Amino acid sequence: MEEGDKVSQEKATSTPWGRFIILWFCCTLASGILPGQALFIELFAKAGVFSSVCSAGDSTCKDQYLSLTGVFQGGATLAYCFGPVIGLFFDQWGARAVGTAGAAVCAFGLLLVWVSVQGAALGQDANTSAVFGLGVIVCDFGSMLNSFAFIGLIWHFPGRQALVLTLSNATYQVSAFLPIALEFLMRLTGLSLAGTMLAYAGLVTVITYICWLIVPTQAEFFREAKRTLGMPLPRPPDRIRACHMLGRAWEVLRMNSWDHIASGLALAFGFAFPGFYASLAAPYGEALFGSKEAGNELATLYVSLNGFVGLVLAPFVGSLADRFGLLIFVLVLGLIQTVAVFTCGFPSWPAQAVCATALVLFSTLLTLFISRYLLLYSPPNRFGTVQGVYALVVMLASMPSTFGGLGLTAVLPEGPIAYQIPMWIFGSSGALALYAYAWYFMSHPPPDVPTLLPDDEAELARNFGCSSLEQVMYVTHIQTRKQLLKMLAATDPEVTYQLIRSIDTERMMEMMAKLDLEDIATMMETGGVGEEDEEEEEVGQQETAESRPLLENRQDSKNSINSYKAGLALALAPTGESERRIRLLGDRYAALVVAGDKDGLRAYLLQESVEDLWAVTLDMETRFTEAERKKTDKDFSKLIPGGEFAKLLRQRAELRNLLQKIMKRELDRKVAWMKGKKMAG
Predict the structure, then answer these.
(1) Is there a single domain that holds both residue 84 and residue 64?
(2) Residues in Cβ contact with 412 at an 8 Å cutoff, skipping those fewer than 6 apart
(3) Which residues contact 329 (CB under 8 A, 6 or more apart)?
(4) Residue 242 in domain
(5) In the chain, how many H helices and how many E strands?
(6) What's the CA gap between 627 and 593, in Å, rounded?
(7) CA 569 to CA 564: how far, in whole Å?
(8) What is the DSSP string of 55-118?
(9) 477 in Cβ contact with 431 (< 8 Å)
(10) Do residues 442 and 536 both lie within one domain?
(11) Is 90 exceeded by the pLDDT of residue 42?
């Protein structure tokens, strides 16, 4: 069986669907209370949270609902303020750490919510209602952190990344069913809302431990990416440079500022209507149909539709967006708002079902639009941060209208009109803004390829030994920047294979020869050379166990470190004994690596001729087994990582030729493997 077939078979048999399903349910349960806010607000109002703002004798009131809505809307916005840096946390610490911490934070937020609900039950709402707002914010932030647990599995499903991402996003909407489940539990057991919330917090605490057990570590994430792509991902920086990354993301957005202002305003106006309706579904239903039961039914209808759309429709909307393009996408968003604004005022259950469905679908498509839109503007290496900054700005821009609508409802007379007037204003202005943006989009289409910052282009090109994307196009025989950037941004491993297979190593060496020495040294420093995943090392321990005694035997016989100086004269003998001389040098090199002699390796690289160093490389390939060679290369990379080799390169410029030869040989081997062939010789 060919090596490529073995790898494919290994991927097919090791796809962790059971692990995925467990994590899917865990993330759904740890999504907090915001997705089901339409019904949760009704439950909290009945439990007496913010009842202190009502007149004496009133069990619930409009001001109470508005206070709860303001907390949910404000909490969601404040949680979004942390969105741009969550991606940086993921890059730095990995899915397990971020996902587990997110579940723990969510559990703590739910515990704070329980304190508020329990305080209201004991008649202390005036003293404990402030804790409710803090609990909502903490819970929302924790659920956002926990959602990144799914990203840790993205490379475990080669060729199915889009499905994995779509299903992971669906957990947020499916969690809208949670208040329905909690209501059922309360009726079944007789528990109060306070007791149910305490049990929910305990469940999410258990989920925290489950996440720690099943979410991939950062090491596993990188290992699976390397196995899927055939090449390692760039390692994260040693420290988080949040301000720098956020500043660079802001610079990306500023390069097409008018496009982003137009789209951001349209989305901000469009977002206000769904948020307002979702938060006030229960009191609006009561005012519209004249009973508290009807209000509860409308809130239940909304959260049920929210969960249904997330579970059934969300996996398909992405492909529809790709098929019809963003212009049609924007027009559809405007049409959905139009349908919602024309149906929201009718005291009819079919009309409210149509309105709620339209608004749920709008919210789903809005999130998808932001992702698809920013793919056209953001370079692939900054997409996560750019998306976070853009979403934050849109949320902040929507806050004045959101709280303005709540204020308008507060001053309007009791009855359906207090909710309908803000809805009509939000819906009509949102639809008009989206239609206006569609007109702007037609006359100002997005760029064919994302506009790159100068250092972004250099970073992407450096991975190919080039200084610009034009040089990368030359090396890979790709005709346009648009095609190249699309391939660089793809998560489909087949696209990555295609890109690697297209590399012309002769052209790559030609481009590297044009680079300054400092550029090559920088490439070594930033390329993650010599870094090894801990779990990958564990996996390789069994494979290399047999190779270690062989290497140690070489060291213990005539190749011991103590005999290095004695054998050096022989190593420098005339060319008549060149084969023996190169073999001895190779054994010396292996002995230095086994002994962990970093200083000896530095001297070896600085003193031996480059021709002999290259000859040793070729000799070891013929004499050492593959397991021995991998073990030696791994240990060498730990002793002389990329940054250390860059220092040696600056000391001895001749090492550049050795480096280029080694890179070309390794790349030739990788490209040949990608093409399903084996290197000869």
Answers:
(1) yes
(2) 418, 421
(3) 321, 365, 369, 372
(4) no
(5) 33, 0
(6) 15
(7) 9
(8) PTT-SS-HHHHHHHHHHHHHHHHHHHHTHHHHHHHHHHHHHHHHHHHHHHHHHHHHHHHHHHHH
(9) no
(10) no
(11) no
530 and 638 Cβ atoms separated by less than 8 Å = yes
Taking the CB of residue 241, how many other CB atoms lie within 10 A of it?
A: 12
The answer as to whether 244 is a domain residue is no
- To the nearest whole number, what is the mean pLDDT of the chain? 79
Contacts of 164 (CB under 8 A, 6+ apart): 20, 150, 153, 154, 157
Per-residue model confidence as pLDDT tens digits over 547-566: 444 444 444 433 444 444 44
Higher pLDDT, 64 or 342: 342
Q: In the numeric block, which tokens belong to residue 408?
A: 């308008």
Is the domain of 506 the same as that of 445? no
Regarding whether 622 and 555 lie in a shared domain, the answer is yes
Structure tokens at 644: 């250390």
Q: Are residues 45 and 130 in the same domain?
A: yes
Say which range, 86-95, 131-140, 631-640, 670-679, has the weakest mean pLDDT.
670-679
* Cβ atoms 280, 409 nearer than 8 A: yes
DSSP, collapsed to helix, strand or coil, labels residue 215 as: coil
Could you tell me if residue 457 is inside a domain? no
Domain CATH number, residue 41:
1.20.1250.20
Write the CB contacts of 550 (distance below 8 Å, at least 6 apart in sequence). 625, 628
> Do 31 and 173 fall into the same domain?
yes
Task: Quote the DSSP letter at residue 412.
Answer: S
In a domain, 240, yes or no: no
Looking up tokens 């839109």, which residue turns up? 373
Q: Which of 405, 297, 412 is nearest to 69 (CA)?
A: 405
The whole domain housing 159 covers 1-232
Number of structural domains found in the chain: 3
Could you tell me if 406 and 530 lie in one domain?
no
pLDDT at 376: 79
Q: Which pLDDT score is estimated for 616? A: 86
C-alpha triplet 479, 482, 483: angle, nearest 5°: 55
Domain final residue, candidates 422, 451, 480? 451
Q: Residue 507 — very low, low, confident or very high, per pLDDT cuts 50/70/90?
A: confident
Burial (Cβ within 10 Å: 0-12, 13-18, ≥19) of residue 218: buried
Sign for the CA dihedral angle at 184, 185, 189, 193 comes to negative
CA 66 vs CA 288, 340, 427: distances in Å: 17, 22, 19
Mean pLDDT check: name the lowest of 79-83, 484-488, 597-601, 619-623.
79-83
CA-CA distance, 20 to 11, in Å (whole number)? 15
Q: How far apart are alpha carbons 599 and 347 in whole angstroms?
A: 83
> Which range is least confidently modeled, 102-111, 152-161, 311-320, 575-584?
311-320
pLDDT, tens only, 152-197: 887 787 766 656 766 777 787 788 888 888 989 998 998 899 999 9
Q: What is the DSSP letter of 122?
A: T
Contact 585, 612 (CB under 8 A): yes
At residue 354, the 3 state secondary structure works out as: helix
3-state secondary structure 220-289: HHHHHHHHHHCCCCCCCCCCCCHHHHHHHHHHHHHCCHHHHHHHHHHHHHHHHHHHHHHHCHHHHHHHHH
Domain endpoint, select from 451, 471, 503: 451
51 and 191 together in one domain: yes
Helix, strand, or coil (residue 124): coil
pTM, full prediction: 0.69
